[in-house]
Amino acid sequence: MRRHYSTEQYAVYKQEAAEEFWGQVRCRTQHALQRMLEADSEQQMADYLGLAHYERRAGPEERIDSRNGFYERDYVTALGSIRIKVRRTRKRSFLPRGIRTLERRAPEVAEMIRQAFLRGISTRAVGRVVALLTDEPVSAQTVSRLTRVLEQEVEKFHRAPLLDEWAYLVLDGVWLKVRRAFGPQRVLLLVAYGVRADGSRQLLAFTRARAESQAGWEAFLWDLHERGLTGRQLQMVLSDGCPV
């Protein structure tokens, strides 16, 4: 079969040009972000001192503080790792706004790690994937620590009070495939959806169960009642034959 070398060469050139272009865009954007953060740190210090760089007080007012150079701090963003200069005086330092004390990663990077974990990627594989995007190696321990926030959010969801405003209650048992250390496994969840009179729907609760037993559903519904769902406005409860 005849091969069109000119077409193949053009495709290779096009791919290399695109990679070079986006590489330059990423590098320039990183540099612009670095300069913006450093400028914010400098401006905060100038506002604090009441003096811009190289300015001196004209009168005999007592100086509240004085400049003391800067320290460098690595900060991981979705564009990669950057090193910023944080201005400081003899009494305090001035982190760029949006960066919290001891924070090493931008919030969107931490969220990216959590989303990758939720999609079933192992903790070690998540670290490798994130390293490809941010140039920062992420350990399995770091991934586990960041994903603990998910556990806190789930616990908060389970304890949140429920408004008694639902016209319809939909109950169902849902089988999900989850990733375990020993391989994928099917897990049963008992799920409750509330539907308002205007048709809007919301997930109210879910819990893991071994089977759709009457005892399991009764405990699940009692928890909904304890959280505030008394059913005064309920017009119908829908299920798929589960023993409620």
Q: Could you please describe the fold and organization of this structure?
A:
With 244 residues, the protein is of the alpha+beta class. The chain folds into two domains: 5-149, no CATH class; 161-238, no CATH class. Helix content is 42%, strand content 24%. The chain contains five helices and six strands, in the order αββαααβββαβ. It has helices at 5-49, 107-118, 123-134, 140-159, 214-226, and strands spanning 67-77, 80-89, 168-180, 183-195, 201-209, 236-238. The strands form two sheets. It has a four-stranded mixed sheet, with helices on one face. The mean pLDDT is 77.
Give a quick rundown of the structure.
This protein is of the alpha+beta class and 244 residues long. The protein is built from five helices and six strands; from the N terminus they run H-E-E-H-H-H-E-E-E-H-E. It has a four-stranded mixed beta sheet with strand order 5-4-3-6, covered by helices on one side. It has a two-stranded antiparallel sheet with strand order 1-2.
